[in-house]
Sequence to fold (162 residues):
Amino acid sequence: MDRFQLGIEIALSVLLLVTIFYSLYLGRALSVLRRDRGQLDALISSLQSSSAQAQSGIDHLRQTTELVGRALGKTVESGKSLKRDLAMLCDRSETLAQQLESLLPAGRVAAKAAHRVEEMPEETSFRSALRLKPEEVRTMKPSGSKSAAERELLRALRQKQG
Fold:
């Protein structure tokens, strides 16, 4: 059994040498890890602070988004109100335009009458009627001594002003 014992001792010696070299390798690796552990801790703390900053940035963005959303909502409501007002003004202007168009033939008749009167010798009295204030035109009554053109013009002026 001496040979068998010797073989086992040689095998155990080889395994012991392998274990020693492997433990030296592991010791060096552990020292590297210990040395890098400080850097790893610094990296972890940097990552934590970055994530905290990102979270605060997200919260700030939420608040800003809410404020901008409210302001935008107010602007939209104001725009809708202005749209309704503009639509109402457009409707009113269309009705006024239609009224003016209906008065346009009467105005043309009055203009033609005014042109005819300028050619007449009685133009001084007629021009004085054109210079009257709106209140005076409304209170004037057609008289029998005035020509048909003068009466037509006075009637057109009353319609236009009142």
